[in-house]
Amino acid sequence: MQTLLLDSDDVRANAPLPAVIDAVEAAFGAYERGTAQMPAKSYIDLPQYNGDFRSMPAYLSVDADAPEATASEDWDAAGIKWVNVHTDNAERGLPTVLGTMIYSDPETAFPLAIMDGRELTMLRTGAAAAVATDHLAVEGATSLGIVGAGVQSYTQLDAIAAVRSIEEVVIADRNAERVADFLDHFADRFDVRAGEISEAAACDVLSTVTPVESPIVDRADVGDHTHINAIGADAAGKHELSDEILLDAKLVIDDYEQTTHSGEINVPYSAGTLTDSDIYGALGEIVIGEKEGRTPADGLTVFDSTGLAIQDVAAARVVYTAANEAGNGTAFDLLGLSDVEP
Q: Where in the sequence is the active site (predicted)?
C-alpha cells in the first residue's frame, strides 16, 4: 500500500469545482444530520513569531439517498488539516497561510494521501460560498463584488460562477498589483473591473475576503437584496461587516461554536450587540430542508463562513479519488507497507 503525495498543482488539477461544491454541500448535510464528527478547531498561538497553528480533524459519512447527496453510493472520509497564519511570511517570500492535509482511510486509518492544504483551503472555501450563494442569493444574480484580491478571491469567483450566471465582477483592494493580477486572470471570461468597496457591495452577491479587524463594508453601500459571503474573519477580533448589516440581514452561519468564537459575528456577539436570536440558522439546516433558504420576502442575506474541517475532508476525497483514478501525484511507501495489498 502506498500513499499519494499531491502538491498544489496536483490538488488543483484533480478538483473539478462542481464536484467539490457537491461534496461540500453533502458535508454540510452530514454534519447537520449527525453523521459527521468535527472536534473544535484547536489553536497554538505563537506571538513571538506573529503566527499560529490550527488543527482541524473530521470524519463524515454521506448517505447516497440524502436529497443533497450527488454520489450514487454511500461514502465516508476522514482526515486532518494542519494549517497556520504567519503574518510576517510575506517578508520572507512565503505565503501567509500554509497547510498540509492528511487524508486517511476511515476503516484502516491508512494515510491514503498527503496533499497541499493551501490549495485545498481555497477550493473548499470557494465551494462553501457557492453552496451558500445557491441557497441564499436571488436566482437572477448576475453581478459579483469581491473585497480583497488575495488568493481566496479567485476561487470565490470561480465557485460562485458555477451556481449563478455571473457576468459583471467588481474587485476592490488597496493593492493595485493584486487588482491588476486579478483583472488579467479573468479578463477573458467576465466583465471584470476595479472599483471601490461601495461599488462591490452594491452587486447581487458580495464576498469579503480580508483579514481586517474594523468593518470596511457599510450598511448604506449594500444592495437591498444582496447576498454576502463573509469569508475573512477566521480568528477572534476580525470583523469585515458593519453591525448594522449583520442585524438587518437573514444571518446564516456555518457552525455556532466557530462563528461565535472567530467568525464574522464574533465581535458584536462578544459585546452583546448581536445575540442568538439574531442568527437565522446554520447552512446545514437549509441544505437538508429543515429551514428555508431565500424566500420572496427576504432582502439582505449574510453567510458567516469560518471554514470547517468537514469541508476539507470532503474536498480531499474528491481530489484523492480523481488523482488515484488518473494515476496522478507521486506514490511513496510512507509506512514501509508496499507489499501489503490495498
A: 81
